[in-house]
Design a protein that fits this description.
This protein is α/β, with parallel strands linked by helices. It has 10 helices and 7 strands. Helix 2 packs across helix 3, helix 8 packs across helix 9 and helix 9 crosses helix 10. The chain is globular, with a radius of gyration of 22 Å.
C-alpha cells in the first residue's frame, strides 16, 4: 500500500476513535470522584474539580443539610440509604447542597463516594449507566439537577421502574439524588387536568405523582426571609474578605434583591460577585 494512503487511513482511524471514545468499564471510576454521564455516547467524562460552594456557606437550609448529610454518611459507610429528592424554591441551594455533601463526606473519608451527574434528557439511558455501576465496587450518587416532567412526558415511567422496580432492582452501591422546583415533578395543571378528564381520575393522578414515592427522603426547601438573605450575604462576604462595612453591605444587598424581586442564595451570590468586581 502506498505510504500516503496508509497515513490517510491512520488519520481516519484516529478521528473515529475520538468521535467514539472507549466505553466505560469497572476501572473507569477509579480515576476520579466525579463524572458527567454522556447518554448519547454511553461514556463517563471525569470532572476533576466540582463547581460548588462549601457547606459552611449555605444558610437557611440547616435542617435539610442535616438530613442529607446523615443519609449520605449512611450510604458511604455501606449501610442502607434512601434516594433523595430536594424540591422547592429556586436559588436556595438545592444542587449546591448535594455537591457540598459529596465533598464533605469525601473530606471525612477520602474517595468514599463518586458523584455522577446525569442530564434530564439522558434519563432513558439510566439503565445502561446502572449496568456499568453494578459491575464495580465504588459507592455512587447519581445526581439529576432540575428534574421535572411535562404533562405528555412518559420518561417518568422508566425512571420509576429503575428507582424501585424491575427484576434487577437498584444496585446496592447506587443512590439517586435529584432536585426540582416542583413538588410532584409534574406541572400542577397536568395533575388537575387528569383529575377532571380521566375516567378514573384518582388512579390517573396517583400514576403521575407516584414517582415522588420512589424517593425515601423528600425534603422541601423554602424561600428566604430578609434575615436569612442577609446572613447569606454576610457569609459570602466573609469568605471573600470584602473590605466593606456591614451597614453598607446590607443596604446594597437589599437594594440588589429588590431590583430582582427575589431573596435567595443565588441572588446573594450574584450580589457578592458584583461587589467583588467593584472592590477589585
Amino acid at each position: 500500500m502506498d505510504a500516503s494512503w496508509l497515513t490517510q487511513l491512520e488519520r481516519i482511524a484516529g478521528a473515529l476513535e475520538r468521535l467514539a471514545p472507549p466505553l466505560p468499564n469497572a476501572d473507569t471510576l477509579q480515576t476520579c470522584n466525579a463524572f458527567v454521564w454522556q447518554g448519547e455516547t454511553g461514556t463517563l467524562t471525569p470532572v476533576p474539580h466540582v463547581a460548588g460552594v462549601d457547606l459552611a456557606l449555605l444558610r437557611g437550609v440547616e435542617r435539610q443539610i442535616g438530613l442529607v448529610l446523615e443519609n449520605t454518611r449512611h450510604f458511604a459507610a455501606g449501610r442502607p440509604a434512601n434516594n433523595v429528592m430536594l424540591w422547592g424554591a429556586r436559588g436556595m441551594g438545592k444542587s449546591s447542597l448535594v455537591k457540598a455533601a459529596h465533598a464533605r463526606i469525601n473530606a471525612e473519608t477520602p474517595d468514599a463516594l463518586v458523584l455522577i451527574e446525569i442530564q434530564r434528557d439522558d434519563l432513558s439511558t439510566l439503565p445502561r449507566l446502572l449496568t456499568i455501576l453494578r459491575q464495580q465496587p465504588r459507592r455512587c450518587i447519581v445526581f439529576c439537577d432540575d428534574l421535572s416532567f411535562e404533562s405528555q412526558d412518559a420518561d417518568y415511567k422508566s425512571l420509576k421502574s429503575v428507582l424501585d422496580g424491575g427484576i434487577m432492582g437498584r444496585p446496592n452501591n447506587v443512590v439517586f439524588y435529584a432536585t426540582s422546583n416542583r413538588r410532584h415533578l409534574m406541572p400542577r395543571d397536568a395533575i388537575e387536568n387528569e383529575n377532571g378528564s380521566a375516567l378514573n381520575p384518582h388512579e390517573a393522578v396517583e400514576e403521575k405523582v407516584s414517582l415522588s414515592d420512589r424517593f425515601g427522603l423528600w425534603i422541601g426547601v423554602h424561600g428566604a426571609n430578609q434575615d436569612t438573605y442577609l446572613a447569606m450575604v454576610d457569609a459570602y462576604a466573609a469568605d471573600r474578605k470584602l473590605p466593606v462595612d456591614r451597614a453598607t453591605l446590607h443596604r446594597r444587598a437589599l437594594q440588589w434583591s429588590m431590583e430582582r424581586g427575589s431573596r435567595s442564595g443565588r441572588v446573594a451570590a450574584q450580589f457578592i460577585d458584583n461587589m467583588s468586581a467593584e472592590l477589585g
